[in-house]
Write a structure and sequence with these properties.
about 220 residues; eight-stranded antiparallel sheet
Length: about 220
């Protein structure tokens, strides 16, 4: 993404009158590939993080050999936190540089509950699929995620690409995205997976989330 486009996204988060609040019992649908459709999310607190838990429910019919961006948080200089499904089917995340990669059950047309946990002291990172934890990997111990960026669903805002690219865009459904500034316990992640009430995400809470729709993204009632 160009610097000017990144600045435009940042300004839209702060200034747009189109900002909406709350997606309880609703689903975001990205119906087809574009280089312009995305959802900008406004965090409830600055994303200056030494630990986090990110959870969402996601479904897609895109083939495994197609790279997909699942979550993107970028400051002016770095991809602070990007989550991908890679072309080889692995799921990965990147924080300001090289990423780490996990072999997980495939994302399909049926909704998958997917969580990611990481904390800086040890660097321990894991994905959780349907409430089950992957093996731990050690990734960037001592690292900190920096604030004052933009959070985007549906596109990868990478200035080195020279703009948004349809071939990396997300196509499918996302719902129940929540994020905390700490690592949840196993019992909490499993409770979230089964739809039980747990403490609301203090960075993103799907029920009260502030968001801005751009392009062809649909919001529909949960069926």
């Amino acid at each position: 993404m160009s610097v000017s486009l990144f600045v435009g996204l940042s300004l839209s988060l702060a200034l747009s009158s189109a900002t909406q609040v709350g997606l309880s019992n609703k689903v975001l649908i990205f119906p087809y590939e574009t280089d312009f459709s995305f959802v900008a999310l406004i965090p409830q607190k600055e994303m200056s993080l030494k630990a986090f838990t990110l959870c969402m429910r996601v479904a897609t019919e895109l083939p495994e050999e197609r790279q997909i961006i699942l979550f993107a948080y970028r400051t002016a200089d770095y991809d602070e936190l990007n989550v991908w499904r890679e072309k080889d089917g692995r799921v990965s995340f990147y924080m300001s540089g090289d990423g780490t990669f996990f072999h997980l059950p495939p994302l399909t047309t049926f909704r998958t509950s997917l969580c990611l946990t990481w904390e800086s002291v040890t660097g321990l990172a894991a994905f959780w699929v349907e409430g089950k934890r992957s093996t731990y990997q050690v990734y960037k111990p001592g690292h900190s995620i920096q604030p004052k960026g933009s959070v985007i669903l549906g596109q990868d805002p990478d200035k080195h690409l020279g703009g948004l690219e349809a071939t990396q865009s997300f196509v499918g459904e996302v719902t129940d995205l929540n994020m905390w500034d700490h690592v949840l316990k196993r019992s909490q992640i499993q409770a979230w997976h089964y739809g039980h009430k747990i403490s609301s995400g203090n960075i993103f809470d799907w029920a009260t989330i502030q968001y801005e729709l751009n392009g062809n993204v649909m919001v529909v009632e949960e069926d």
